[in-house]
Amino acid sequence: MIQNAAAHLITKATKYEHIKPVLRSLHWLPVWQRITFKTAVSAYKCLHDVVPPYLTDLHDDTSDAGR
After folding, report:
1. Is residue 47 part of a domain?
2. Are the C-beta atoms of residues 56 and 49 closer than 8 Å to each other?
């Protein structure tokens, strides 16, 4: 609801205007998709050693489980 209100405020859209086109015009992901995206980016960076070692240590690599 906060993201929708912010989008209406930024774009000066009316409160009766559909929010999906407004969010698309701002290139904003819905909250659940943003969480998924950020989690995937973090995992990718951990796997490719692009983050500090303390974050890589937190990542549980299960790709070679059972070996």
Report:
1. yes
2. yes
